[in-house]
Amino acid sequence: MTLKNRIFLGLLLFIPISLGAEFAHWGPLVVFITAAIAILPLASWMGLATEEIAVVVGPTLGGLLNATFGNATELIIALIALKAGLIEVVKASITGSIIGNLLLVMGLSMFLGGLRYKAQTFQPVIARVNASLMNLAVIAILLPTAVHFTSPEIEMVKIQRLSAAVAIVLIVVYGFTLLFSMKTHSYLYDVGVAESEPTKEQLVAGQETGVHGIDGEAVDGESVTESHRPNLKLWAGVLLAATIAVAVESELLVGSLEVATEKLGLTPLFTGVILLPIIGNAAEHATAVTVAMKNKMDLSVSVAVGSSLQIALFVAPALVLAGWFFGQPMDLDFNPFELVAVAVSVLIANSISSDGESNWLEGLLLLAAYLVLGFAFYFHPA
User: Fold this and answer.
1) Total number of domains in the chain
2) Cα–Cα dist 290/101, whole Å
3) How far apart are CA 185 and CA 178, in angstroms?
4) Which one, of 275, 293, 319, 286, lies nearest residue 11 by Cα?
């Protein structure tokens, strides 16, 4: 068992602690902190269970499963916050997830990986495709805000309808990106990732090498099915239990959010943009940084940018449509300052990743941009 897994296993103790804090009325601040910590290992277990199931069901269904559950923790937290009427927090968490993945996760990966390797490479073709998709996402979330800004007298119902139409377009585009990456142009995602220690994601994607293994544990001369036979029912049960537990902890987190953040002196904007994305994405962040330090920058960039794309093209549109179901006026009319932050993040991330090569200085630039934006959100009065 790796150090990361041991840490996450120990953090499971915060599940009963958070429940005890809620029922014993220890206060919203204690509930918020313990629930936030409890979500970290649960997100990790959801990711692990998804990967194990993906190995069994094959590359196509496995890739679809990973694409669906990649940001499940964030989606659950956002859905519960949306149902509670915390719409501005939900919107902030969307922009915060995009910013965090592009600047914090990719920045840490490039910086720490660059300290061990002078230069690291990844597929420039995929980087350019991802850049185009992120540009589309920026345009999609910019237009409803621009319509509202240029026509302040417009009815909010029309903004919501416009947002729903844009959401449907984005979900359709997301579906085609899955078709592109898993079927028609899957060979682009295979180049350069077949290594002596393949990860589960590579095994699921169908990369065949002479040595197969899970989490870097090589098994010589055996096929994937012979060396590793995950128990489908067991891992499906783990996935279901972790999902339910995340939903319960998210209820505690959201229920104590407003009072706890007020006691901490934090605004809802800062909480949504900075805190919630870090809580929901911690396990994924650790994975991206770990593989970057093993010189697997292709996979690291794919985790960071892929997560941002999933938030922009699937999670955000899904939340807009869920708002109609919950009777909450969720739309894509964002705070203009949030849009500026997203546009800046996409611009610097695209410019750094476009050449398919990274080093520690480029990672430091991304981290510096994240810190600057973090300070700006902290002092923003919204």
Assistant:
1) 1
2) 15
3) 10
4) 286
For residue 327, give both structure tokens.
């009777």
pLDDT for 353 equals 86
The pair phi, psi for residue 217, each rounded to 5°, is -95, 105
pLDDT in tens, 106-120: 999 999 999 999 999
Residue 332 phi, psi dihedral angles, 5° rounding: -105, 25
pTM of the model: 0.83
* Strand-pair partners of 213: 218
CA-to-CA distance for 42 and 8, rounded, in angstroms? 8
DSSP collapsed to 3 states, the chain: CCHHHHHHHHHCCHHHHHHHHHHCCCCHHHHHHHHHHHHHHHHHHHHHHHHHHHHHHCHHHHHHHHHHHCCHHHHHHHHHHHHCCCHHHHHHHHHHHHHHHHHHHHHHHHHHHHHHCCCEECCHHHHHHHHHHHHHHHHHHHHHHHHHHHCCCCCHHHHHHHHHHHHHHHHHHHHHHHHHHHHHCHHHHHCCCCCCCCCHHHHHHCCCCCEEEECCEEEECCCHHHHCCCCHHHHHHHHHHHHHHHHHHHHHHHHHHHHHHHHHCCCHHHHHHHHHHHHHHHHHHHHHHHHHCCCCHHHHHHHHHHHHHHHHHHHHHHHHHHHHHHCCCCCCCCCHHHHHHHHHHHHHHHHHHCCCEECHHHHHHHHHHHHHHHHHHHHCCC
For 186-207, give the secondary structure using H, E and C.
Answer: HHHHHCCCCCCCCCHHHHHHCC
38-56 as b/e: b if 16+ CB within 10 A: bbbbbbbbbbbbbbbbbbb
Neighbours of 291 (CB within 10 A): 22
Strands 120-121 and 357-358, sheet pairing: antiparallel
- Which two three-digit tokens encode residue 52? 């194990």
**CB within 8 Å of 50: residues ≥ 6 apart:** 65, 66, 69, 70, 239
Residue 154's CB is within 10 A of a number of other CB atoms, namely 13
- Its domain, for residue 114, covers 3-379
* Token representation of residue 165: 């139409």
Q: Which two tokens stand for residue 177?
A: 């990106």
153-162, 183-192, 209-218: which range is least confident on average?
209-218
Length of the chain: 382
What is d(CA 224, CA 51) in angstroms, rounded to the nearest whole number? 13
